[in-house]
Amino acid sequence: MVMEDSEAPHHLLLLRNFMSQGVLHRQPLLYASPAHSPRAFLGTLPAPIPPRTHLHTPSQQQEEDLRIAWQYKKYFGNEQMFVESHRGNHWDFCNEFDLRKSLDRQLLGAAHIDCVNLQDVEDLASLRDRCSAFLAPFARTEEGITCVGRVAIQSFCSPQCRYSNSDWDMLFFIKSLRSMLRSSNAVAMITFTPSVVSSSSVCMRWQHLADTLLSLRTIPDDDKEMAKLLTDYQDMFGLLHIHKVGRLNSQVPVILEATTYSLKVIRRKTLVLERLNQAPVDASGGGSLGGCSGSSSARLLDF
Amino acid sequence: MADLVCRGLRDGVLEGEYAPALLIKDTLQISLGVHVFNHFLLSLSSNISSGKAQSRGLVVVAFACPPCFYVDLLRSRGIGVASLSNWIRIVDCYSDPLGWKDKLLNSGFSAQLSSKSHDKSSVGDVECLFRDVGDAEKLSSLVFDLGRGLVGPGKGRFSVAIDSASELLRHTSLLSVSSLINNLRSHDQVASLFWLLHSDLHEPRAILSLEYLSSMVAGLEPIASPSTDAQRNHHNHLFQLEQNSRRGKLHMRLKRRNGRVKILFEEFDVEQGGIKFVPVSLGNAIRNDAILPKVQFNLQLTDKERGDRAKVILPFEHQGNGEDIKIYDGRGPIADAPKNIFPTPRLDESASATITTSSNGGKGEIHYFRDSDEEALDTDEDPDDDLDI
Questions:
Q1: Its annotated pathway (chain A) (predicted)?
Q2: How far is B209 from A54, CA to CA, in rounded Å?
Q3: Among A184, A273, B304, B387, which residue's CB has the most CB atoms within a 10 Å radius?
Q4: B311–A contact, CB cutoff 8 A
């Protein structure tokens, strides 16, 4: 569950990475959005950055796999793609995406993506049925995990959706989606804006329903105070705060080193989450606004 | 700055994005929202009529003032008077928003109403009467039709101004208003839109939803905060009322494309000729502490820092430059004492004699000289050892 900030579209970046990863690993995807044409969003999914050459898989084998992949793609349809994924994936687990390039059209076309326009949804029961129909093939069986499904719901409580007044229905939908996910091999990512949810108790319940809860904050532009406090103020454009991390089968909690990360896009290419670094307070009263890296020099330290 | 907002409205929308939307909100304390709205309306109108704006037409949905008010306002500033009907349309939701007069007429009630309803001012083709404010979809389709009529069916764009969204919210639900604004923003031919809202008339959720849908929010605030002292209250109250009837502070939050929020403060003064904005450099009323957590210092070193650290000369470590190591321990030159390569370990103080280790051929010697009696005792020494009680 991702809590958006009503003033920034950062949740879209996270959603894009999530969906792109799903498409790459050939996991069926259900995408729901309040926009007029959800399909248009698919065109903005980022392409993966090809893994660097010094990977553990030898390149020869990769060549072979690629050849097999190409041949299968040529002769068989969608279903065979799943079989091929057992043989050695075309893409290893990919976590980095290039935001400047969009995902290959062929991959998108071959992928199994369902789009739902949330504005057309009259009531949530129909959406629930749609989700359960989508998740039915991924039911947990004894054989193990063959395929994983992904559900991405963007801005679930947008004020222009018809069901947005009925808070309890929305909570019930999330609860039933969660129970469906527990019994199937699937993950879901839902973003919502806490400020437009009508009451704080509903918002609290919403947050408790999440396994993993993240929240996004914007930062003010051209803020000199903040530029003095943080070293990388120029590069970052938002903050990500991790409230809780899901641990379903373990009693050991996750203790994170840092719960707040800054969102940065490096060279306009990759989205990077970095720990916040505070600039040390300059005790000598120097006037520079730079961070700790700016003040290092090769002079002798004198005591 | 208000100029920034005006420019945002003038420049309009980029292909594939949602149109910029400005929300102006005021309160009972500082109810000058109408003046600010008129200011933005006039600036956008002058840009449109002189051709500088992306949009080529303007549709005004008038709830709080009659259409003739806007026409007179534009005329008084001399904006595009000659060709008003070419670029502006005003939807009249002021005269008969719910169609009551019409219904009364039809049911054959009074004759005096009939004369008023047919009283059209001279700007007949600019304004368009709308009688069914409760139906937001009809209103939006009317707005689209008028706009398309103004700019033609092709790629031309028009802007929309809603006089008072508070009136609209009174007649319809938040859901319909939200979907109306969303549809306007996502429409291919809308360049920009702005609307006024009186924020104390609505629930916080409605205000927050509309703020969520807009890309620029301009909030009016009183200059002086109300005093809490009861005794001076009356005097201050009058003074503040007088102040707030003319001056105020504008707090703008603009959502930028890079995801950051630009926050600006300006003071404005309503005068006879219009409204004047003065930028104010605020001593950071925005508190960043709420956003930032207590962060840690950067404990990792960059490569440059590592190199610099290696270059630092420390006084108590060997320089490694080939010379014999001399460890200066506070006494005079130790040329006569045998050279010690390793730092002297502290031995028991009774062992002031030298200990020669015969195992390594007499080469290594350990000398321990206790410097003075005032020195701090070793940890294994007990000062009460030489007490005999």
A1: tRNA modification; 5-methoxycarbonylmethyl-2-thiouridine-tRNA biosynthesis
A2: 50
A3: A184
A4: yes
Residues of A in contact with B4 (CB under 8 A): none
Q: Which CATH superfamily is domain A2-38+112-275 in?
A: P-loop containing nucleotide triphosphate hydrolases (3.40.50.300)
DSSP state letter for B329? -
Query: Is A219 within 8 Å of B258 when comparing Cβ atoms?
Result: no
Residue B328: half-sphere exposure toward Cβ, Cα within 13 Å: 6
**Nearest-CA distance A287 → chain B (Å):** 18
Domain boundaries, chain B: 2-291, 334-370
Which B residues in the span 103-142 are in contact with A, Cβ-Cβ below 8 Å? none
Fold of B2-291: Rossmann fold (3.40.50)
B379: contact with A, CB 8 A cutoff: no
Complex ipTM over 0.95: no
pTM, full prediction: 0.71
C-alpha dist (Å) from residue B282 to A128, B30, B179, B278: 50, 20, 36, 12
**Residues 66 to 95 of A: which have CB under 8 A from any B CB?**
none
Q: How many CB atoms lie within 10 A of CB B192?
A: 28
Q: Are residues B200 and B219 in contact, defined by beta-carbon separation less than 8 angstroms?
A: no
- Report the pLDDT value the prediction gives residue B198, as an integer from 0 to 100: 92
In chain A, DSSP finds a helix count (H) and a strand count (E) of 9, 11
CB A236 within 8 A of CB B274: no
- Taking contacts as CB-CB distances below 8 angstroms, the residues of chain B near A223 are 263, 286, 288
Per-residue pLDDT tens digits for A37-83: 778 788 778 777 766 543 343 434 444 444 444 444 444 333 333 33
